[in-house]
Structure formats: C-alpha cells, structure tokens
Write a structure and sequence with these properties.
The structure is a homodimer of 167-residue chains.
Chain A: H1 9-19, H2 23-50, H3 57-68, E1 73-75, H4 76-83, H5 87-99, E2 103-107, E3 115-119, H6 121-137, H7 146-162
Antiparallel strand pairs in A: 1-3, 2-3
Helix pairs in contact in A: 1-2, 3-6, 4-5
Chain B binds a DNA duplex (30 and 30 nucleotides) through residues 1, 40, 44, 47, 56-58, 75-77, 85-93, 95-96, 108, 111-115.
Chain lengths: 167, 167
DNA sequence: GCAATATACTAGGACATCCAAGGGTTTGGA
DNA sequence: TCCAAACCCTTGGATGTCCTAGTATATTGC
C-alpha cells in the first residue's frame, strides 16, 4: 500500500467507464471515487496524529463536540444527531471514553430515558491538546489551497443540504 | 439519524473553531469534515444499491477491477495496490466473494508465493449488472453539477497526487 | 550452493459502523 | 385514567479496515 502507482487508478477507471459506453456517468464516478479515496487519506493522517493521545477519530469527535457544549454535557441522542452517526456508534464510543476516564454517563434530570454524557476534566484537557495537534499537523497543512478549501466547502455544503443533512 | 438538522453542524463547528482562536485552521477543518461526511452519504447510497446484489462496496470494487482486467484475473498484491487498501482487506473480500462463487483463487504459473484472483462467469455477470445499477441510480444522479464534478476531480486529483497516491 | 533478506498471503485481534431486537420511560389520545 | 405508540439506550451480530505476527516461496549475496 506504500509505493506510489505509476498512473492514477481513478483516471484509469474513468477511461474504462468511457470505453464501455458510460460516458455520461464516467466523470461523476471519478469524482465520487476520488472523494472516497481522499477521505481515506485524510482519515489516515488524523488517526496518526490522534494515536499518541490514545484517541480514534470517532472518540475525538465526541470529545470535541462535548468540549464545545456550554455545559460540557450532551444527551446521547443529541450527540448522535450532531455527529450524524448511528446511536450504537455513540454507545460504543462512550463506553471506551468512559473506560479511559474522559467522560462520564449521568442521568437526565427530567427524562428517565435519556443519558447525559459529560466531560471529565481529564477529558477536557485531552480534547484541547488533541485539537491543537490536529490543527497544526493536519488542518494547517491540509494540502488544499485556500481557493480549493472555499470550493470544497461550497460544493459539499450544497451536496449535504441536498442530501437532507440539514435544512 | 434520519431527520435533517435545523442548522449545518459543520458550519457551526467552523464558527466554534474561529471563536477559539483557530481562524486559520477553521476553513480547512470544515472542508476536511465535509469530505468525511460526504463520503459517508455516498457510501450509504452505494451500499443501498448494491445490497440487492448481495454485494458490499468493497466486494464490488474488487469485482469491477477484475472485470476490467483483460484476462479477468489479477494477483492479490496487484489488486491491493490498485484498490489502495491493505492486503488483509483483499484477503477478506476474496474469501467472501469466493464463498459466493463470484471469484476463484488460482496459483500463479511462475511465482509460488502469488495467488491469482479470477472472475467466474457468475461474477462477471453480476459485476455488469451491479455496475449498470450504480451508474443509473448513483452516478447519473450524484447531486453534483457538471462543473462541481470537474472542480472535484481537479482538486482531489491534485491532492491525491500530492499525498503520494501516484506519480 | 546456502544462508540472509525480501515478498506474498493468511490468521488473529482491535475498532468502528450499521441493523435488528429488546427493555425501560414518556407521551398522547381514547 | 390508562394503554398503545413513540422514544432512548444497549446488546448481539455482520462487515470492513488496519496492525502485528507467522508461514511459505523467491531472490540476492557471499
């Protein structure tokens, strides 16, 4: 998985598509495939930075979300909605973060069905350190130009909105 | 995970970043997060289309790759390199595809270490059907305009090249 | 020619994601 | 008032991805 390929495999796939009579779908296919691959690369970088902190991206996201909540606490279902992942994924992440002493579960004051997740002080400290590391080692050198970043935000926001992520 | 949120969570995160003194990193962070989320949405659509065929995206990718190989066969390591996934992921996918009768393993004629993966006729037929479905149900209605597609291909190709995917 | 190194694949384990199903809690309409 | 429907979280199962060995085969160097 290490050595660079002599040719762009996605461009090759696009040519294959065109050669098989799917000329109209070839370019969108290439764009979609490129997004998949780019996500893979970015996730790899992020996980590498988070590893020394004992965090995965999923756990970091939850930690970061909590650190931005005024009270430092959120209901599980709220976290699930904001992170846009399945509730069971949040359960899983909270289990591990709790085992690491970074968050605690507590009862909701008025709704017995709801469980609140709350940052511990260790969790808050770690979130801050991990965020600083990600900013300096990933986001500050993303490999995208400022214009690329603007374009991506514009294109992908429209896509996500159209896909029903938000109104 | 179903109902649309009243606000864009990524735009909110970007504002949070800016409010915490990471103004330079906020936009790249938002772009990266948007890529992660977009990949998630696209993967969901693709898996939904492939499900009736009994395929996952990982298995489909391998089938499609084989169907474009002249001989219909590829060494495992070659497939791993072209799909840009870990060799063990290919082993996993081949195990399941073989169990489904879509591919077979065979010995390399000259290199005893190498295992060739070869499409069966069922595999070739299924790959064709699944590709047609993906083209009409996902790529032909990707939600990106033609200009967006061009921009994405341009930006992400440069990114992947810069990341060392290909020369 | 034989040992040391490199390469190819597989086995086992850690994580994450989703779905389906189950048990507890609230809410709203009969 | 009260019970059915809706909601919230967790458990168990299936997939996929990666990493760390471990086994087998090739190639290289002395």
């Amino acid at each position: 998985m290490g050595t660079p390929l002599p040719r762009d495999p996605i461009a090759d796939a696009q040519r294959n598509w065109e050669g098989h009579g799917w000329g109209n779908e070839a370019a969108p296919m290439a764009a979609v495939t490129a997004i998949m691959r780019t996500q893979q690369i970015l996730l790899g970088r992020i996980e590498a930075v988070l590893k020394p902190f004992g965090l995965t991206f999923a756990r970091y996201e939850l930690l970061a979300l909590l650190s931005f909540a005024r009270s430092g606490a959120l209901p599980m279902n709220k976290a699930s909605a904001l992170l846009q992942v399945h509730p069971t994924s949040v359960t899983n992440a909270v289990d591990r973060l709790q085992a690491a002493g970074l968050v605690v579960r507590s009862a909701h004051p008025t709704d017995g069905r709801t469980t609140l997740i709350e940052l511990t002080s260790e969790g808050r400290t770690l979130a801050k350190s991990a965020t600083a590391a990600l900013n300096s080692e990933v986001f500050a050198q993303s490999g995208f130009t400022d214009q690329d970043v603007d374009q991506l935000i514009r294109i992908l926001s429209a896509f996500r909105k159209n896909a029903g992520d938000f109104t």
